[in-house]
Automatic annotation (TrEMBL):
Pfam families: Sigma70_r4_2 (PF08281)
Species whose genome carries this gene: freshwater metagenome
GO biological process: DNA-templated transcription initiation
InterPro entries tied to this protein: RNA_pol_sigma70_r4_t2 (IPR013249), RNA_pol_sigma_r3/r4-like (IPR013324), WH-like_DNA-bd_sf (IPR036388)
Name of the featured protein: Unannotated protein
GO MF annotation terms: DNA binding; sigma factor activity
Residues in RNA polymerase sigma factor 70 region 4 type domain copies: 7-46
Amino acid sequence: MSNPQTLAELLASLPEEERIILTLHYLRSKSSSDIAAMLSVPERSVIVVIESGKARLKGVLGL
């Protein structure tokens, strides 16, 4: 990658909902069910955001 970014910069570049969910899941070790309850959204929605966000970050990092 020609322009390395910190994790904080990568997370900051994501849409707010995605950033919140990924932060709770990966940095605060919250389960998808816990996040769904905290945000009052379906757990499946949280799972989809985690999967798509992980794929997006991998793409940006070239993994």
